[in-house]
Amino acid sequence: MQSNPIQPTLRSERLVLRPHLESDLEAVHAFSSDADVCRYMQWGPNNLEQSRSFLEGAIANQRVSPKVHYDFVIVEAEAATVVGSFTLRLNKPGGELGEIGYVLAREAWGKGYASEAAELVMKFAFEDLKLHKISATCEPFNFASAKVLQKAGLVLEGYLQKHIFIKGQWRDTLVFGCVREDRAVNLQKLQLKPRLLTVGEVTAVPVPHSPGVSQAWLTSLFAGGSLYHLFMRAGSRLGSITNVLDQYVIVLNGTLTAAGRRVERGAILHCPSAVEQSGYEADSDVELLVFRLGPAGLQG
Length: 300
Known about the structure:
With 300 residues, this protein is of the alpha+beta class. The protein has 2 domains: 10-189, Gcn5-related N-acetyltransferase (GNAT) (Aminopeptidase), CATH 3.40.630; 213-293, Jelly Rolls (Sandwich), CATH 2.60.120. It is 18% helix and 38% strand. It has 5 helices and 19 strands. Strand 7 and strand 8 form a beta hairpin. Helix 1 (25-32) crosses helix 2 and helix 3 (113-128) crosses helix 4 (143-151). The longest helix is centred in the middle third of the chain and has 16 residues, at 113-128.
């Protein structure tokens, strides 16, 4: 990694990512005190002193060398309005691993600013700092953030149960990552176009199952695929199926038998697309989280 002790300013067509200033306090406090903005954050909603403390810390980080924190304020270029904050944190001084995080003011939602800012930071991290890998986390229900991470070239790497303490409770988290040399391939996969299924083509759903199986869709479109809970009563069975989408099945609770082997809580089953999968038999009550990945539009 190449050391860069200076806090840079990054620019795109619509945004400027620059170091924080003391004069940013009012704008920073406006979004950091908004309960909806902070819904998935470990911090907030902030009072004024907490916002001031954050700002002072971000400014202090600018003077640290070698740098570990790159804290940017997100500014709408045309209006010169502060609309959020973006952080790149290294694992150690001179380290080659980084983690990104961001927050946007409510009025900036739905404009593509998070993706635009993420693109700037990813290029800075890989091209200027020469980092090896960038990681990020988000809640399973934070679909907007998950899509931002995928558009930035990160891919889903894991699911951690009750891993982050937020708003008085332990919550699950998704783990995303991108290695520098893999980013171009990851981004290329996003260019796959939605298409209509041909008559008679096998779809991802419905899954043939016994009466003891039920599913609850969390979203029909998640980072280019689908995400849902699957519940199996002890003794119930999921039939075999051939998917048109790559699928990951995470065993949240219980024990099942798949392809003749016993699978317990915490296991992740990868089911490649276009390969017939054997059925699942529930040895106990089972709770599964299923990610069907692939180009949007292939859901049945």
